[in-house]
Amino acid sequence: MPRQDWFRVVTLPGRSDFSSLNQWLSENNVTHRFTLEGDGQILWVANQELVEPAKIAASNWMKEGHGVDGTIGVARHLKPSIEFNQPFAPVTWALLIFSVVGFALVRLDTEYAYLFFYYDRVPAFTDISDQWYNLREGQYWRAITPIFLHFGAVHIIFNALWLWFLGTRIESVFGSVALIILVLVTGLASNTAQAIVSFPIGFGGMSGVVYALFGYVWLVGKFTKHPAFELPPALFPIMVVFMLVSWLGAFDWLAGGEVADTAHTVGFFSGLIYAGLTAFVLSINKPALQNQSQSQSQDEHEHR
Among 104, 149, 169, 265, which residue carries the largest CB count within 10 Å? Predict the structure, then answer.
C-alpha cells in the first residue's frame, strides 16, 4: 500500500472536547486525525488542499470558546462563549438594570420599594390577610417584580454574574423574546411558591430565575450539544449541592437573612421542565440548532 502523507494544520488544546470540530470535518469529507504532542493535540489532514479549510474550521471552533489557542506558542485564553454571536443582549441587560434599581430601592428603604414586594400592607388578623391580598386588589405586577429586589451586595453581585453568564447564552441562541418568556414563567413559579411558605415575611431576588436558567441551559445543552450551552462538567453537581446545603441554613449569614430556598428549588425544576418542553419541540420540528455552529463556520468560510 502507498504511504499516507499527512499535513499538519494546527495545534489545539489537549483537554478540549473535539466532538463538534470532528463532526464538521467528517461531514465535509475532510480526512483527518489527531496526535498528541506535549499538552496539546495536532490536527492533521490527508490532503494539502484541505489544510486551509481545516484551519478555518479549527479557528472558528476556538473562537466559540472551546479552549486555548496553541498555534502562537503561548497559552492564550479566548473570549468566553457568553459573547456567543451576540455582543449586545438587550433583555439580559434590562434584567440587570432592573435588578440594580431594585437593589437601590431596598437599600435606600424608600416607599417605592414596597410597591414591588409580593405582598405589602396586608390587613392583619382578618379573613383577607393572606399572600394573595394585593393580587386580588389588581396589583398583578407584584407576582413578578420581587425578582428585582435584592437585600445586599453579595446578593446582587452573585445574581448579576449568573444572570449575565446564563442569560446571554440563551438570548444568543433562541432570541430575546424566548428569554423574556422563560424569565416570566420561571419567575412567576418561583415567586408564587416562595410566597406560599414565606407569608408574611417579604422576600426577593433573582436567584430563583438564575437556578431556572441554569437548569434550562444544562438540560438543553445536553440535548442540542450547542457550543453556547456547554458548561463545565463539575458545575451541575456543585450547583445542586449548593442548593441542598442552603436548605440547612448554611448561607443565611452570608445573605444577611433567610435564603429563599423554596424559590431556588422551584425555579430550578421549572427551568428543567421548560427545557424538557423545548427539547420536545426541537425534536418534533427537527431544527438546525444542533448544526448551527457548523453552518456558521461554513458561512464564514464562504465569505472569505
Answer: 169
Number of domains in the chain: 2
Whole-number Å distance between alpha carbons of 161 and 88:
16
Model-level pTM greater than 0.70? no
Report the candidate in 244, 167, 170, 173 with the shortest Cα–Cα distance to residue 206.
167
- Average pLDDT of 172-199? 94
The CATH number that applies at residue 106 is 1.20.1540.10
**What pLDDT, on the 0 to 100 scale, is given for residue 4?**
58
Residue-wise pLDDT for 287-301, tens only, equals 445 455 444 444 444
pLDDT digits (tens, 9 = 90+) for 228-238: 888 888 888 89
The model's pLDDT over 242-286, given as tens digits with 9 standing for 90+, comes to 888 877 765 655 555 567 889 999 999 999 999 999 988 888 765
Q: Are residues 72 and 162 in the same domain?
A: no
What CATH number did the domain enclosing 39 receive? Answer: 3.30.70
* Structural domain harbouring 38: 7-79
Q: Indicate whether 132 belongs to any domain.
A: yes
